[in-house]
Design a protein that fits this description.
DNA-binding; four-stranded parallel beta sheet; 3 domains; Rossmann fold; 339 residues; six-stranded parallel beta sheet; 434 Repressor (Amino-terminal Domain); alpha/beta; 42% helix; homodimer; 17% strand
Chain lengths: 339, 339
DNA sequence: GTGAAAGCGCTAACAT
DNA sequence: ATGTTAGCGCTTTCAC
């Protein structure tokens, strides 16, 4: 490694002290404007780059925000991250992103890594697996703010940003009913996490409200396209087949729909289908999938903003708020019956 | 921020010196095994966490690898990153990931940020836009190794990991010809970057080799589904329509194919289509898309391994190698003609 | 096998 | 407006 230019080198070059250089470099207005200009020019010329470690060591801050998400290969998550990155970089923070791959152990491990690398704050979307979240306590103890989004715990000292899953699911199910579906089915994953638990609640409420409607539930092992196909085979083998399906996620919905078609069902006339998330795939499958548009980018922006806000007013107690984002139901071909 | 436990606290507690504690903590075998055990236990009990900044400041290494990619919301990229993360964490490195969003300016800015945060090494997949890559020179100057993968420059002092785009494209085109396609079309993006330039070359070579075959090219403005749809409309409006299309990417291919169907074309009988990447969408669209399987995870692993290797043998000259990964052609319905 | 001491580059309280 | 000074917590010679 070559020798790096330090503020001392600049100071010596200019006949100043290191502190003056330090102050000048961060634009402190207490320093004479001419001096500031001189310092900056010299720094440029000498190829100076600030040493974040020395600075972090001194200030005990890292200007880094940790992000833990189940996976980052969904369109929804990309949108969330893009929103976060925007807010973070605008406020001088870097993002460290890690995936839990839906495993509680990996989530815990990532949390520990983040903790040890001393992120200033943490943004988390939880795994489907249930967890006691104990590994986030250490952050609370050190007054490191945590913000949850999308997949959030029911009860937490930290801020949460979610969409109204219950309401969205209720609307989706009501829509199916309005399309003359009477034997409703909800395909989801068996999880206590809000997103799926609340969608189930919304489904059940809508079914309960409507006479002449029955509702049942099938649990997928995971939220993949392949699982959707498997479920479709199960459905095809049922004696009392559903005529309207609300699926907790577009990927599963697509797999399910395509396989149902292969099994000879007409979509939406034999079976109407609604998904969730407005993943690009929902617009690509044939027929196009009705779904719920969940504003990921906005969720990311709000979550990151909340965190940055808490970071600014340090020493304030951590904020425990719960913000609900509006979603929007999108009707497409998969649930729009001709009858 | 609460007071953190330091090695001095542990040293005092145990009546040792800080140096001994430091050595014990990193498992230095010169320290008595009993002492080591005692130190570790005490560290645990006191909630010690190592301060990476102090350590980095001292050792001038960050144990961090920077990654710059065009976007991370494709399945291919997720696979690459997963492979890298695996190798990195196995070797004690963290990954900092950033997106260039296909813009040279953002790529340059990301490179500078990475440089200033003193990543130990850099892994890059370039933008489609052409660039002089000058912003990577600073890494070479400081002997910070850079490794390119997938989208790589033609001529560089750094290592490159690519698939054989030319050969894969050649095979894909030959396949179309074997399906009795005679008016071939290549849909790609107008870029000098290897992936697209080489695919074009492969296409052209295959066409040139076959008598009775004509080949033409349409450039998409970007590699999106929507662009594919637009191109399809162009094709539908052509006088001399193609009967076989090789598209540089599955997303564009899907958009194109679905829109062609809407315009009344039978796929594959009127027009056969082949994509590239084996994106999950290629298996979801109807008809299923023939494509080239490009092993992303493997590419990520190899690139990260190469970097780690170079990091280990520091002071060695940077390695300038070019490794070519094998891809695999997958034939599905979109190009398999009944005739 | 263990300790003493110096210093990595920066910041911030306290001078002037 | 600028300088002096004292660390932040760790690693690493060089001693013993």
């Amino acid at each position: 490694m070559e020798k790096e230019t330090t503020i001392y080198d600049i100071a010596k070059e200019l006949g100043l002290s290191a502190s003056t250089v330090s102050r000048a470099l961060k634009g402190n207005t207490i320093i004479n404007a001419r001096t500031r200009a001189k310092v900056e020019e010299c720094a440029q010329k000498m190829g100076y780059r600030s040493n974040a470690f020395a600075s972090n060591l001194r200030t005990r801050r890292t200007n880094t925000i940790g992000v833990i998400v189940p996976r980052l290969d969904s369109n929804f998550m990309s949108a969330c991250l893009a929103g976060m990155e925007n807010v973070a970089s605008k406020n001088g923070y870097n993002l460290i992103i890690s995936q839990s791959h839906e495993s509680v152990e990996k989530e815990a491990q990532n949390a520990i890594t983040m903790f040890n690398s001393r992120v200033d704050g943490l943004i988390v979307s939880l795994t489907v697996e249930h967890s006691d979240l104990a590994y986030f306590n250490q952050f609370a103890q050190k007054k490191v703010p945590v913000v949850y989004f999308d997949r959030v715990p029911g009860n937490t000292p930290f801020a949460c940003f979610v969409t109204n899953n219950e309401k969205a699911a209720y609307e989706a199910t009501k829509h199916l009913i309005s399309q003359n579906c009477a034997r409703l089915l909800h395909v989801t994953v068996d999880s206590q996490i809000n997103v799926y638990a609340d969608r189930k609640k919304g489904f059940e409420r809508a079914v309960a409200e409507s006479k002449n409607c029955s509702g049942s539930i099938i649990y997928a092992a995971s939220l993949t396209f392949d699982e959707g196909e498997k479920i479709a085979l199960e459905i095809a083998a049922m004696k009392n087949q559903p005529d309207g399906i609300f699926v907790a996620n577009d990927l599963v919905a697509s797999g399910c729909m395509l396989q149902l078609q292969k099994s000879g069902f007409q979509i939406p006339d034999d079976i109407a289908i609604v998904g969730f998330n407005n993943d690009p795939i929902s617009n690509i499958v044939s027929p196009k999938l009705s779904t719920v548009n969940y504003p990921g980018r906005e969720a990311g922006i709000l979550a990151a903003n909340s965190l940055v806000e808490q970071l600014k007013n340090e020493n304030t107690a951590l904020k425990s708020q719960r913000v609900v984002l509006e979603s929007e139901f999108i009707i497409r071909e998969s649930s729009l019956r001709s009858t």
